[in-house]
Amino acid sequence: LPGLYIVATPIGNLGDISARAAATLASADLIAAEDTRVTAKLLSHLGLRVPMTPYHDHSDERVRAALVARMAAEVVVLVSDAGTPLISDPGYKLVRDARAAGRHVTTLPGACAAIAAITLSGLPSDRFLFAGFLPNKAKARADTIAEFAALRSTLVFYESGPRLAAALGALAAGLGNREAAVAREISKLFEQCVTGTLTDLAARYADAPPKGEIVIVVGPPGEAIAETADDATIDAALRAAMAD
Ligand code: SAM
Q1: CB-based burial of residue 161 (10 Å sphere; 0-12 exposed, 13-18 middle, 19+ buried)?
Q2: 154 near 128, Cβ under 8 Å?
Q3: Domain Tetrapyrrole methylase spans what residues (predicted)?
Q4: Span 108-121, mean pLDDT?
Q5: Cα–ligand 1 centroid distance for 156 (angstroms)
Q6: Relative to the CA of 86, which ligand 1 atom is closest?
Q7: pLDDT tens-digit map of 5-31
Q8: Does 80 contact ligand 1 (Cβ within 6 A)?
Q9: What is the pLDDT of residues 176-215, one digit of tens each?
Q10: pLDDT of 126 above 50
Q11: What pLDDT, on a 0 to 100 scale, did the predictor assign at position 240?
Q12: Is the Cα dihedral 138, 139, 142, 145 positive or negative?
């Protein structure tokens, strides 16, 4: 069936490509890729040769219009460099325009670093907010974190090694010293998940920025406040704390 196929690719281990994803890539007329060089490696691993074109949400409107036009009669596959397209990656405008034009749109689910990190973290997984990348600048970062402080949810952030310690410190300052996890290199040779409080983790990474790709998972606010959030209980806890 012609249309737009959103295909998740591995976030490390190439064995994580699904059978259906491989078959769909093989049958594609065109692959719209975030970086065609990165996707070329995946195609070569699968022994495939398929025409590719670069796609970003900031690509020219005409690029998107041409892709949507081709979806009328051809199989157009959207991939990003790793994981699920659209998740801190390009694609939503292409999906929006394909839908507006009445094209067939379908998705082939697969690896996503945020979901994988939650499963590794041991933190509550019933309710979470995916917050993507924090802003670089300290003020904007603190303002963004402040928006999340009242949520009784686990929070998930994408991060890079050099910025990790600063991000953990800012999270501790804005959210309180919550339980957290730093998941690194998921599904790769040096996969690691380190758990602790935000301040412990910030101290651990302060002088030793880790290599590789990182997800920070932060637990919800402490049980005492989260689960018995009536004013009288909080008042009593505050009075007790002040009496110490
Ligand atoms: N679309 C991707 C997904 O589904 O997870 C995410 C793309 S985003 C541009 C890249 C970020 O995802 C990295 O900076 C890192 O925070 C996270 N990431 C990707 N692969 C990872 C891995 N194998 N281990 C840990 N984090 C990873």
Answers
A1: middle
A2: yes
A3: 4-202
A4: 98
A5: 11
A6: 1
A7: 999 999 999 999 999 999 999 999 999
A8: yes
A9: 999 999 999 999 999 999 999 999 999 999 999 999 999 9
A10: yes
A11: 52
A12: negative
Residues 6+ apart with CB under 8 A from 167: 134, 141, 157, 159, 216
Q: Which of 157, 215, 216, 217 to mutate to test the pocket of ligand 1 (most atoms within 8 A of CB)?
A: 215
> Which of 88, 187, 190, 211 to mutate to test ligand 1, by most ligand atoms within 8 A of the CB atom?
88
- Report how far apart the first and last C-alpha atoms of the chain are (Å, whole number): 69
Average model confidence (pLDDT) across the chain: 93
41 alpha carbon – ligand 1 mean position (Å) = 17
Residue 236 has pLDDT above 60, yes or no: no
d(CA 68, CA 62): 10
Answer whether 131 contacts ligand 1 (Cβ < 6 A): no
- pTM, two decimals, is 0.91
Residue for token pair 């040096």: 190
AA identity, residue 197: T
